[in-house]
Amino acid sequence: MEQQRIFPTGTAGRGLSPEDLIAKLSDYKPLSHDIRGDHDLNGFRPEPDNREAAVLVLLVRREDDLSILFTKRTDHLSNHPGQISFPGGHTEEEDETAEHAALRETEEEVGIPDDRIEVIGQLNDYVTRTGFRVTPIVGMIDAPYEINPDPHEVAEVFEVPLSFLLDSANHQKCSRIFQGVKRHFWAMPYEDYYIWGATAGMLRNLYSILNEE
C-alpha cells in the first residue's frame, strides 16, 4: 500500500506569497454565527445540536511553495469509506478545544506529533448534511516530515499543491441524487483523487477568505 505521494508544488496561488497567505489566515477571526456548510448549496437550515468535530487543514511548506495534506480513508470504514478528507474526527470529552481535537486526531490518524505543527488560524465552522459541526483548524508544517498512518483508518496520505486548490477553474459545482433528493456539492478533482463534499466545501471557504469574498 502506498502511504505517501508528494506532488510537485507550484506558487502559493492567487498572487499571494506564502508569507502573506499565512499572515492573512493568522489575522482571520471567524464569527461564531457565520457558519458555512452543505446548506449553502442546498438550502436546508443547520440544526442547533450538531455533533462537534474538528479537522486539521495542514499546510506543508516546501521552500517557497505550499501544499495541503489529505488522507484517503480505507474502504472498510462504515462512515465515508474511500473518501478524501482532512485528518480529524469527533471532539472527545478529553479535548479542551477544537484545536486540541484536530491535533490529537492528526497524530492518531497520520502519526504527526503536535510539536511539529504550528497552528496559524481557524476557518468558519462547517455544518455537514450528516449532522456534524466541524471546526477546521489551519496548521503549518515544514517538509520533510515523517508519517505513521493508522492502517485501519488511512489508506493513503498525499499532498495537493495549494495553487491548484486556490484556482477557481478547478472548483466544480456538482449534483447527484441521494435518497431521492438532488444534492449539490463542490468538487475539486486532482489527478486520481476526487476531493468533494465537506472537504471541498471547506477548501472553497479557504478560497473565499483569502480572496475576501
Biggest sheet statistics = 10 strands, mixed
The amount of beta strand, in percent, is: 25-35%
The CATH first-level class comes to Alpha Beta
How many strands? 12
Return the structural class: alpha+beta
Return the string of H and E elements: EHEHEEEEHEEEEHEEH
Describe the structure.
The protein is of the alpha+beta class and 213 residues long. It has a single domain, classed as Nucleoside Triphosphate Pyrophosphohydrolase, CATH 3.90.79. Helices cover 21% and strands 33% of the residues. It has 5 helices and 12 strands. Strands 1, 2, 3, 4, 5, 6, 7, 8, 9 and 10 form a 10-stranded mixed sheet that branches. The chain has a two-stranded antiparallel sheet with strand order 11-12. Strand 8 and strand 9 form a beta hairpin. The longest helix has 14 residues. It is globular, with a radius of gyration of 16 Å. The N terminus is likely disordered.
Summarize, please.
This protein has 213 residues and is an alpha+beta fold. It has 5 helices and 12 strands.
Overview features:
33% strand, 12 strands, globular, ten-stranded mixed sheet, two-stranded antiparallel sheet, Nucleoside Triphosphate Pyrophosphohydrolase, alpha+beta, single chain, 213 residues
